[in-house]
Design a protein that fits this description.
Elements lengths: L7 H9 L3 H7 L4 H7 L2 H12 L5 H7 L3 H18 L6 E6 L6 E8 L14 E6 L4 E5 L4 E5 L6 E7 L4 E6 L3 E6 L5 E6 L6 E7 L2 E7 L4 E6 L4 E7 L8 E4 L5 E5 L9 E4 H5 L9 E3 L3 E8 L6 E7 L8 E13 L4 E14 L7 E6 L3 E6 L2 E6 L4 E5 L6 E6 L3 E6 L3 E10 L3 E11 L6 E9 L3 E8 L5 E7 L2
Antiparallel strand pairs: 1-32, 2-3, 3-4, 4-5, 6-7, 7-8, 8-9, 10-11, 11-12, 12-13, 14-15, 15-16, 16-17, 18-19, 19-20, 20-21, 22-23, 23-24, 24-25, 26-27, 27-28, 28-29, 30-31, 31-32
Helix pairs in contact: 1-4, 4-6
Length: about 475
């Protein structure tokens, strides 16, 4: 064969079918292959074809002409390890011990993103909160605790403010606190007078805010990091606000309860609650659904929300409806109104009558639903793309990113599934492998899971009440 007649496009096509090890071997076949394998243009085109958003100009100074090749080989190798998940070689598991109570929250303070050019040298840091009244930060690669906050009342929840270097906690007395994620020092506090709070950090025009859903059915909006109160809105009087979400365009707050059949969830303008006017009510609208079980905003749409709910009061526990709406504001000469436009609606039937539904979104039109032991992927039109029953006990938590889906279960396992594009059905999932959490004599099951690009962290309920974090780190 005359290799000199191969075009650049042909080389990219051929190289795209090679395994990483094959690419390295191919460079020694002959002079032409060797030259092709060392061409920066080729590696750049392969990176852009596979990952689209690549921008590793920051590495050029360090690696020179080898920047694209180093990036492609390292990232391909990492994704291969994350896809195969072989113990003892592809990942390292660390147990993070120190809490003396139940873990009620776990977040990444600094995570590894696929958009980061030098993901290989990045050290993920996670933060956890517990009913033992402490907040702790961990280096998950070393398995070491970095700091621990002073003991306070039992904590009930925790969130991180992205890019702000702060974590927010709530406790059983209703006290909401902001902590410096660098050293664990308390920054400010706010008393909500609610024993159970739902926390939602969000931003508007570059300013940070915190929405606090209370047991009394209200949502308080606070400035951050001062935690000074800006406004309060009643959502579901006397019932706990346990659904609280912000839209990707930061213009909408979704609030609702799963505790009452007659309460519809509401959406309200974030601008109207962060900058309230004495002359005007908050821009707010009820959504036309009954008994909302779960909700999510689609990440690639400005303001598209999906909900799993009962169609009406006569439906059985096994049959529910998934509805999707687009939100917008219609401005007239005298006032502004919230527009709720139906996008899609279809029924979802589960074998179990469990009301514990988990709902996640990917892109602008893919929905991931988990109920009991089953995980499903739907299109907006209700087409079932795939379904899995990899667990023997109920799924307790789901984490979705651009590369994979990870489910945590009471059966003390995590299931890793990776995204793929099918020629006929489009976006779908491949079920890959389990990550095990330990012995059932010592642990009861996983309670929550969070991920960044190269690691997975999950909390395990311990039989003695002292929960443990399990950190799985994949290396390139």
């Amino acid at each position: 064969m005359d290799y000199t007649c191969l075009t650049n496009d042909s080389l990219i096509h051929i190289f795209s079918w090679f395994h990483v090890d094959d690419l390295i071997r191919a460079s020694y076949v002959c002079k032409v292959w060797h030259e092709a394998a060392e061409t920066p243009w080729l590696w750049r085109e392969m990176c852009l074809k596979r990952w689209g958003f690549c921008n590793i100009s920051a590495l050029a100074a360090e690696y020179g002409k080898q920047a694209w090749k180093c990036y492609f080989l390292s990232r391909s190798n990492l994704e291969m390890r994350m896809t195969e998940g072989k113990s003892g070689g592809h990942y390292i598991c660390k147990g993070l011990r120190g809490h003396k109570g139940r873990v009620v929250g776990c977040v990444y303070l600094s995570g590894n993103s696929p958009e980061l050019p030098d993901f290989r040298s990045f050290t993920p840091i996670v933060c956890s909160a517990s009913s033992d009244g402490t907040v702790r930060a961990w280096d998950i690669q070393q398995g070491e605790q970095l700091w621990c906050s002073p003991v306070q009342s039992p904590l009930t929840g925790m969130v991180a403010e992205p890019g702000c270097g702060r974590v927010i906690t709530s406790d059983t007395t209703g006290l909401v606190k902001a902590w410096d994620s660098q050293n664990g020092q308390e920054m400010s506090s706010y008393s909500s007078a609610s024993p159970q709070c739902t926390l939602l950090p969000f931003s508007v025009d570059g300013s940070s805010y915190l929405a606090v859903g209370t047991s009394q059915g209200s949502v308080h909006t606070l400035a951050s990091p001062s935690l000074s109160k800006l406004s309060s809105l009643v959502v579901c009087d006397t019932f706990k606000v346990n659904l609280l979400l912000a839209s990707p365009d930061k213009k909408w707050i979704f609030a609702g309860t799963t505790e009452n059949m007659e309460m519809s969830p509401k959406v309200f303008s974030s601008q109207s609650v962060t900058c309230p006017s004495e002359d005007e009510d908050s821009l707010c609208q009820c959504l036309p659904v009954f008994v909302c079980c779960a909700a999510v905003f689609l990440p690639s749409q400005p303001a598209r929300t999906a909900m799993v709910h009962y169609r009406d009061f006569s439906h059985t526990r096994h049959s529910k409806t998934l509805s999707v709406f687009d939100l917008s504001i219609k401005k007239t000469r005298y006032k502004s109104e919230v527009q709720v436009e139906p996008v899609a609606e279809f029924d979802v039937v589960f074998e179990s009558g469990s009301s514990n539904i988990l709902l996640e979104g990917k892109g602008s039109g893919t929905l991931i639903v988990a109920a009991d032991r089953e995980l499903r992927v739907y299109t907006l039109k209700g087409q079932l793309l795939c379904s899995f029953k990899d667990h023997v006990q109920p799924i307790t938590s789901v984490c979705v990113d651009s590369f994979r889906v990870v489910t945590a279960s009471q059966d003390l396992s995590l299931r890793v599934l990776t995204w793929k594009v099918d020629r006929d059905s489009g976006l779908t999932l491949d079920s890959r492998y389990h990550l095990l959490g330990g012995s059932h004599t010592m642990f009861r099951g996983f309670s929550r899971v969070v991920c960044d690009y190269s690691s997975i962290v999950a909390s395990v309920e311990a039989a003695d009440g002292k929960d443990v974090l399990k950190a799985y780190t994949f290396n390139a």
